[in-house]
Amino acid sequence: MKIDNFAIGVEPEKLKSPFGFKGSYADGLWQTIVGMESQGVKSLGIAVQGVLWSDASVFNEYGQDGGNELMHRLSDYAMKKLMGMDFNNPFEANDWLFKECYSEIKRMTGRNDIRKTFVLNALVPVDMAFWLLWAKTNGITGYDEMTSDYSGYLTSRHDEIAAIPLITYGVSNDEIKRLLDDGSFFLKVKIGKEPEWDKKRVEEIWNLAKEYDSEYTVSGKPVIYLDANGRYKDKSELLDFLEYLDKKNILEHVGVFEEPFDEFEEIDVTDIPCVLAIDESAHSVEDSLVKFQQGYKAVALKPVAKTLSESLKILKAATDRGIKCFTADLTVAPWQLEWNRNLAARIPTLDCVKTGLLESNGNMNYTDWDRLKGYHPIGNGSWVDAADGLFNLTDFYKEDGGLFKLPQHYLEVIDF
Asked: How far apart are alpha carbons 53 and 121 in whole angstroms?
């Protein structure tokens, strides 16, 4: 498939309050929108730019706006490189673009230590648009057919999936209690601010959560999902934290602990008494295999942050080795969330719960979630909003959440 034309645009979105993790805060996110055309057929891709998530050093060096501009320029560079090229499928295009863009970002910044995740994040709208255009040009109208080569790994068809809220540094106890009252039973908690702060924070949250019951978890109590974003310096620091949680009878309720160490640390974790998961460090199959060998037992798949192409390949490699998979958010807008929801609806779940899992925190963080839902082609779909802590997928599969419909608003943003 050869790309004949493209358009690109951006929409900045403000957050309700500063979003705290990795020791820093962001108060706004850019949405990059890409339009792509081949032989008169058009498609769209969208991505939220998570500069602080993808490479905190870029965020610290360039600032929030400078980092966003840099990532947007890289997405634009990718589209220009793609023009006139001919690829058989999205995997070929994404692999080639990654190499080109990784070299380019090093040139743009004068740095050789840019994290691969920064490049993948920049490629998400391009990869999404390419997948949907490839599907259209091949007469494919549904997600199952589009991903048929991976059907052996997309074996579930969940009727409902848990809505995982994100509890960042600044989320208050009142807000956490409101989430629990509304039925949330799988709480993702950002830690990594400072070890002693982390201990008190998790204990405080658990003291609220333990008062609730859930029929959707194996323990009958809410599950805690910890995310340190690579902020723990060594194994002894991590073990000290986990021992504290164990003494407080919290550790048994930690279903998964994501990215305790920096991705470049080579630390064997086979003896850690917890299901450790990878996220930022899972750039590729090769990187993931190294982490699996180190003892990591789960992996966060992120089509919305690391491309569907790479996520499917990692899903296969992980499943073949008995590694559990789940999806994680990057505070995306409603229509882009379908890029994750379609995968989450079809992959087996973690051992600690009885439902599928889908992290979605945009409704907690964007200033006007209802306006963003208005951009979704089926923004009033019964699966779009969670009820009692769950997304109901009864009607979802009929149109795969509206993923194959072009949102009029985004077409207008890029004047495509």
From this structure: 9
Closest CA to 384 of 347, 309, 332: 332
pLDDT at 42: 97
Q: What is the pLDDT of residue 353?
A: 97
Do 6 and 75 touch, CB atoms closer than 8 A? no
Q: What are the pLDDT digits (tens) for 128-152?
A: 999 999 999 999 999 999 999 999 9
Q: 258 pairs with which residues across the strands? A: 227, 277
Determine phi and psi for 127, rounding to 5 degrees.
-65, -45
Q: Please, what is the angle between helix 173-181 and helix 195-209, to 10°?
A: 40
Task: Choose among 356, 353, 351: nearest CA to 383.
Answer: 356
Per-chain mean pLDDT for the chain = 96
- In this structure, what token pair is assigned to residue 99? 């190499």
327 close to 344: Cβ distance less than 8 angstroms: yes
Q: What is the pLDDT of residue 75?
A: 98
DSSP letters, 104-147, are HHHHHHT-S---HHHHHHHHHHHHHHHHHHHHHHTT--SHHHHT
Q: Which residue in 216, 161, 165 sits closest to 394, CA to CA? A: 161
pLDDT confidence of 21, banded at 50, 70, 90? confident
Complete domains list, the chain, with CATH: 5-139 (3.30.390.10), 148-401 (3.20.20.120)
Task: Give residue 263's pLDDT.
Answer: 87
Helix (H) or strand (E) holding 290: helix 285-293
Q: 129: Cβ–Cβ under 8 A, 6 or more apart, which residues? A: 34, 35, 36, 43, 44, 45
Give dist(CA 20, CA 5) in Å, integer.
38
pLDDT category of residue 115 using cuts at 50, 70 and 90: very high
Closest CA to 357 of 217, 164, 226: 164
Are residues 243 and 263 in contact, defined by beta-carbon separation less than 8 angstroms? no
User: Which runs of E-coded beta strand occur in 165-288?
Assistant: 166-167, 186-190, 223-227, 254-258, 276-278
Report CA dihedral (147, 345, 260, 286) to the nearest 10 degrees: -10
Residues 55 and 277: their CA atoms lie apart, in Å, by 19
